[in-house]
Design a protein that fits this description.
Layout (H helix, E strand, L loop, with lengths): L25 H18 L8 H10 L14 H7 L5 H6 L12 H14 L5 H7 L1 H8 L2 H11 L2 H11 L15 H15 L12 E4 L3 H6 L2 H12 L3 E4 L8 H6 L2 H20 L3 E3 L3 H14 L4 H9 E2 L1 H10 L12 E6 L2 H4 L6 H6 L5 E6 L16 H18 L3 E4 L2 H11 L8 H9 L2
Parallel strand pairs: 1-2, 1-3, 3-4, 5-6, 5-7
Pfam families: CCG
InterPro entries: Cys_rich_dom (IPR004017)
Keywords: 4Fe-4S, Iron, Iron-sulfur, Metal-binding, Repeat
């Protein structure tokens, strides 16, 4: 394919036509894969992002023709398996995204291929279990069970058994489970908020009233994130409540290609969020992937659903929200403690939200605090890094991040994505622990 100048405009995303029967036509898929792979082969700008592109380029370079037409179409899926939908290629690298005439959307093409695989039943039992976050969390979060599960996850023999049974790499960090959920930890802040912040101040796009979408991860795996978020919001005179009912945002099912399950989760979550929005509340979720799901993926899957679009307009990342308040001079900047030097990893699913580095900007407001920002993928993806066939590749992707953290000699290292933080810690191999930005902000406030 002849070289062309790249797109000079901001990338735009077309809706995902996933209910069209042609979406699942394998012949049409292979035609599009060959077309896009040929463009990627001629460009190669994304080679450093993940293993999807090196896998593609190796297939081409090892073919008889040294072109995509020499690659066996049966091998096209090898590229698909390495993509974990971080979206960085689309949002930060690719010069051929729409409105360019070549109309390249690599992540959503990979998603289409994953959806076809899932429809054919081409997935492992492990993948189904790993993406069933609510079911696993509800079982593993039972008080006695959580103790047993957490102990087993720290036991070498148990991890070897888990590898044999489910294909979970024994060296991968797996999340802990807590019987005292994040929703329970938030209860006291929500109660106190009812009486102290009845007269919330609207500022710009923000109402000053926040309903927290707890997320399955924040609720069961790191409940302190919800407590930290609640305390920080309350300290900033922002009313706090919870979305009354929720299930997983659907991102793990999206990454598996299980789009029907994504729709099922949407049908539960969106009405609950809309109830809050219609009552004057904004929505915040503490995990970037969950925010991205409601800001981008669901609106693209359901472009004609007015409620989905309403949630898109009213859901925020925590630091995005706080910086919007700061713009209106409503952020409390009376910090009690400096944080020194922070090695801050900007998570992929936060970067692709196109709002700038709000976490960095806010933490830099803390006196005597410096931020070293690291804009590289951690290679985690929620499930990719724990699978036995991908774990070592994930750690290789994360190595530049780990190296920068080590060289920074910082007081803290941190990531908005808690799973990315633990991925970095896994590579540090020094028993250090990441501190989430919300935890750091709470520390700076002296709360």
């Amino acid at each position: 394919m002849a070289a062309r100048e790249g797109n000079l405009e901001a990338p735009t995303r077309h809706p995902l036509d996933w209910k069209n029967p042609d979406f699942y036509n394998e012949d049409l898929l292979n035609e599009e894969l060959e077309r896009v792979y040929d463009i990627c082969h001629g460009c190669r700008r994304c080679v450093s992002l993940c293993d999807a592109f090196p896998t593609l380029f190796d297939l081409v370079d090892e073919s008889d023709t040294f072109e995509v037409d020499g690659v066996d179409k049966k091998d096209f899926v090898k590229v698909v398996d390495q993509c974990y939908l971080c979206d960085l290629c689309y949002m930060t690298k690719c010069p051929y995204t729409p409105p360019h005439e070549w109309n390249v959307d690599f992540p959503h093409l990979m998603l289409r291929a994953k959806a076809i695989k899932h429809k054919k039943g081409d997935f492992k039992t492990r993948d189904k279990i790993l993406s069933a976050t609510d079911k696993v969390g509800n079982i593993a979060g039972i008080p006695v069970v959580s103790t047993i599960v957490n102990a087993a996850n720290e036991n070498g023999l148990a991890r070897k058994a888990l590898q044999k049974v489910l294909g979970i790499h024994p060296d991968a960090t797996v999340p802990k489970y807590h019987s005292k959920t994040g929703r329970k930890l938030l209860a006291s802040t929500v109660e106190e908020s009812k009486s102290t912040h009845a007269d919330a101040k609207q500022a710009g796009r923000t109402t000053g009233k926040v309903a927290i979408f707890a997320t399955c991860y924040g609720n069961r795996n790191e409940p302190h994130l919800l407590e930290d978020l609640g305390k920080v919001l309350h300290h900033n005179q922002i009313a706090v409540s919870l979305v009354d009912k929720e299930v997983c945002c659907g991102m793990p099912k999206l990454e598996l290609g299980d789009l029907k399950s994504v729709e099922h989760a949407k049908n539960i979550n969106i009405p609950e969020m809309v109830k809050k929005i219609d009552a004057g509340w904004d929505i915040i979720a503490p995990v970037p992937s969950c925010v991205l799901m409601f800001k981008q993926e669901l609106p693209l899957m359901f472009p004609d659903d007015a409620d989905v679009q309403k949630v898109k307009a009213h859901i925020f990342d925590p630091f995005e929200y706080l910086m919007l308040r700061h713009k209106e001079e409503l952020l409390n900047i009376d910090f009690k403690k400096s944080l020194g030097k922070i090695a801050y990893h900007a998570a992929c699913h936060l970067r692709v939200q196109n709002m700038g580095l709000k976490t960095r900007d806010l933490l830099q407001l803390v006196q005597d605090t410096t931020i070293e920002t690291i804009e590289r993928c951690s290679g985690h993806d929620g499930t990719y890094a724990v699978k036995e066939e991908f774990h070592e590749k994930s750690m290789k992707i994360c190595r530049p991040v780990i190296t920068k953290v080590q060289k920074s000699e910082s007081d803290f290292y941190s990531s908005d994505c808690p799973m990315a933080g633990h991925q970095i810690a896994n590579g540090m191999k020094d028993d250090s622990e990441p501190q989430h930005p919300l935890t750091l902000l709470r520390m700076a406030y002296g709360l």
